[in-house]
Structure formats: structure tokens, C-alpha cells
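Figure 3 (text version): C-alpha cells given as input.
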């Protein structure tokens, strides 16, 4: 709880991972991937309730063994490759209200594919939203490896065109980064939103999205190459500590 506001955190972890089978419970540097998120969430100073939403009984079992509640099995209609986060969160919030009369003020999304997030980052995102009742949500962002102003799209005639073009600049892709507008990528470490953003506005983020800047952050684990890189980063961090 923060400022008398209840805080609920959800770890969405479905079973059907195509590129990395059983990704969410595969051992990353000796530990099931989902456990990294569980451990840091349990260290948070503000999270009152932590649950896992999954369609997979094995993922549920491992989460429960590691101290994370999983009071339901996610329906298959909310577990396909093309299902967005929104119906998953609506289902969880409705289930908790109907079965436990639990209606949180703040909702935290913790993707298991970001195992380097820390409890301090979780709490910083919660604090930021709690200070701004006029905002809809908070998202963690970082500077991208390459500016989108140096990227292209293919036009109707088959020629490359600038993806983004600052006013008065014909060739933004030839400009030094210092002269280009700042751009940020969503890294998905922590997303925090008001329950009302989801249940009343019908959106995961809304229109008023506050940024929590992370100086060092990595995109989530989606490929085997990502997996191997994260193992390297985690082992490097362990040796440093």
C-alpha cells in the first residue's frame, strides 16, 4: 500500500511459447525464469497482493512453490499468441472482485521476460503514479540503440523513405544524434496503471503516460539469442556482487 492506495501486481505467464518452449519455467542461470519476477515483487515495499495468471498448470505449480499466489487457471481464450495484455488483466481483476471482493487502486504488470528488473524499479514506478492522480499510467523507458529518425520505410514506389522526418530536415538519417529529437523505447520492466484505466477507460496505458527513465535496461527475452545474452548478463552481475 502507498498513500492509502492498495497495490496489486500481476505476472502474466502463459504456457505457449513458440520460439523458446516452456520459456517461463525454463531455468535461466539456474533458476526458472518466472522466479526472477516473483522474488523482486516480494521485495517491494508497496505491493499488497501478487498473483500469477497462466493457462499452464506446471507454471502455476512452480509459481506457488516459490511463494506466488495463482488462484485461477487462465481460460484458453485468453492464452493465444494473438491475445493482448488487456483481456488478461480484465479477467484477473474481474475474478478477484467476484471471488474475493478485492478491488485494488493500482495495478502493476511484471512481465517474466524482464528478469533484470529490481524491486527498487518496481517501487519507483509505483511511487511515480501515486504522485500523479491525473496520469493514466507509468511505463519504463530507455534510450534506443538507434534513433528511429535514422530508420526507413519502403514507400509505394519501392524506394526508401525516412520513417520519421523532423520539420525542416530532408535527410535526418545523415544528421548526428545530437541534432535529432530524443526518442525512447518501452522496455517493459514495469508498467503501472490505475485500475480505472483498465476497467473504466478500457485501456492498458491510457493517453497520459508518465515515463520512468532507466539508464541501463534491456529488451525482453524473445529469442534463444536473447536468452543466452541474459544468461551472460546475470552471471556477470553475480560475479560482480
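Below: residues designed for each position.
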Amino acid at each position: 500500500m502507498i498513500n492509502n492506495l492498495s497495490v496489486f501486481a500481476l505476472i502474466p505467464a502463459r504456457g505457449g511459447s513458440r520460439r523458446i518452449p516452456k520459456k517461463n519455467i525454463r531455468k535461466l542461470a539456474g533458476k526458472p525464469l518466472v522466479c526472477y519476477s516473483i522474488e523482486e515483487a516480494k521485495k517491494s515495499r508497496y505491493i499488497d497482493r501478487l498473483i500469477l495468471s497462466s493457462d499452464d498448470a506446471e507454471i502455476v505449480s512452480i509459481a506457488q512453490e516459490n511463494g506466488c499466489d495463482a488462484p485461477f487457471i487462465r481460460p484458453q481464450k485468453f492464452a493465444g499468441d494473438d491475445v493482448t495484455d488487456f483481456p488478461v488483466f480484465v479477467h484477473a481483476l474481474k475474478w478477484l472482485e467476484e471471488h474475493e471482493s478485492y478491488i485494488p487502486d493500482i495495478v502493476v504488470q511484471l512481465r517474466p521476460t524482464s528478469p533484470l528488473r529490481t524491486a527498487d524499479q518496481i517501487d519507483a514506478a509505483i511511487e511515480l503514479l501515486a504522485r500523479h492522480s491525473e496520469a493514466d499510467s507509468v511505463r519504463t523507458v530507455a534510450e534506443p540503440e538507434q534513433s528511429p529518425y535514422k530508420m526507413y520505410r519502403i514507400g509505394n514506389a519501392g524506394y526508401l523513405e525516412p520513417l520519421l522526418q523532423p520539420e525542416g530536415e530532408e535527410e535526418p538519417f545523415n544528421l548526428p544524434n545530437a541534432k535529432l529529437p530524443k526518442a525512447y523505447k518501452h522496455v517493459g520492466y514495469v508498467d503501472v496503471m490505475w485500475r480505472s484505466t483498465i476497467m473504466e477507460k478500457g485501456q492498458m496505458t491510457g493517453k497520459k503516460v508518465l515515463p520512468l527513465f532507466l539508464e541501463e535496461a534491456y529488451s525482453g527475452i524473445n529469442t534463444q539469442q536473447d536468452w543466452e545474452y541474459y544468461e551472460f548478463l546475470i552471471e556477470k552481475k553475480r560475479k560482480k556482487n
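The longest helix spans residues 224-240.
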